[in-house]
Amino acid sequence: MNSVLKPLAIGLAVAAAFPSVSSAQTANAVVASTASSVIITAGRQAQAAKDVLADNAVITAEEIAQSGAATIVDLLQQQRGIEIARNGGPGTNSALFMRGGNNSQILVLVDGVRVGSSTTGGATWSNIPLNQIDHVEIVYGPLSSLYGADAMSGVIQIFTKKTAGALSPTAAVGVGSYGTRKMQAGISGSISNSLSFALNAGHDENEGFSATKPGAGIYTYNPDKDGYKLDSFSARMNLQISRDSEAGASYLKSRLNAQFDAGPSYDDHNVQNLETITLHGKTKISDIWTASLQVAQSADQTFTDASYGQSQIDTRQSFITLQNDIRIDKDVLQLIAERREENVATTIAGLNGQRRTGSLAASYVLKRDAHLASASVRYDNSSVYGSNTTGNLAYGYRLSDAWRVNASYGTSFRAPTFNELYYPGYGVAGNKPESAKNAEIGVYYELGDTQLSAVYYQNRATDLLVSTYVCPVETATHPYGCAYNVNQATMSGLTLGAATRLGDWSLRGSLDLQDPKDDTTGLRLARRSKQHGTLAAEYVVSALKLGVETVLSGNRYDDVANKKMLPGYGLLNLYGTYALTRDLSLIGRWNNALNKDYELAKNYATPGSNLYVGLNYGFR
To answer: Of which family is this protein a member (predicted)?
Structure first.
């Protein structure tokens, strides 16, 4: 175990930066779900969703269990404000775009621990196992003032299986098209009044299809099948030491072996490992003051064996976070100190190294009758790219019990990756962080089972790191260009969301009208549409639940020059569940039921019409 984890052996009675992870409540899967939820990510503390001033969404445990989705990327594609790109089928390289921002501008947390690659930037989505996830929180907009680097477009926090409740087992098996096979088993619950735990293991595999199409060219196209195998394990423990103190630990490990295409007659594949370990605790120092400590580590490791050669790239990150929550009447003052260390080890000369970031942050959340407000500021000091100060101000007013208006302004930044700093012939050591300023206003309606929302945002980014054809500072060593802070962009748009229940029917939908524009060239940002949305309906009668969902997208461009168009598409998915007993249910899913031929990346294939059937035990 890395030495950064050792202080917790002494200070375990002080506690975690995310003390209420296991207490987050979930609501109905198809109805918008945030009405009665508790959101942790938006303010690094448990808040009723109706009091959160940032736009947010929750994917519930019920929705995940019944989804039949192949990957977390497929699940997130159903959420407002999110688009995806993927170089082939499930298991291949995937990217998310939130509110028009890049994949590297989304911060991803697993049980409060930052995950991702320090070389490429962003999370390695294909290696996040869906069968280990209890629920997901999505918070839109900049959160650098609470979390630091990379939270420019939003934060997605993934919570592994929870420990609460009576001791009970769970199991799931399923088979589907393209040789899909899924298995999962777990047990969780309380052993005593003070100790609870959760253990889960899973295996997914898919024989796949060719990741590329013939149009990819003779140097890329390979007609072989590109499948994957994903093995995963997670464990959590929580110990109630006393009425005012608790401690716990969580662990996640996954290993993905995924094939891809990089040329004919070769079995190109990646072996990727994701690992997180967290030790945490909290204690109530006084009636108004709770202190928490989290010590954690995450690893993102990739071995590539391809026709162009072999490589190993490992990222390891270590964290210590001390958080103090001080209640002042209905308000909360939060003080945070954090240290992060990144270590990169690769087979690529010049790319190895480390950097350290020390951070201090403060926030204040206010509640006064119909008034809600929050303010936060954070200072990050990196050993490589210097210091950055970010802030956020938000205000909300309840017009009535059902209606609320919000407005906010926040700044954020993204740290340059090791590739953008040091990759031979591409990186420039003097590159500085990207930065952005975001303003938004939202209107929310919530009454009973009906929720409506409309949010307009404008996020202006400067010093964007892009690949230039002529390197302005390293012409001798970078004859083919480099990564450089040269572009500006504006990601603006209107996001609409709606959900309701009408008798036995549940309905939800979303629509994003956006303009993700490169201000330097006047062109649209690559692989982002101007319109995309979702529609879903679910009908429940006795033990049977039937649903239909759609994903709709306008056209996109595959390149920054806007020369290669990706046509718009619409996908229709059908699903159903039938409760055979109180604990055992049959699930079925028909994805892309109309067998739509579409592309998420130019000349890369996507799944055709495909079926999945399975049995779930113990999921309620």
So the answer is: Belongs to the TonB-dependent receptor family.
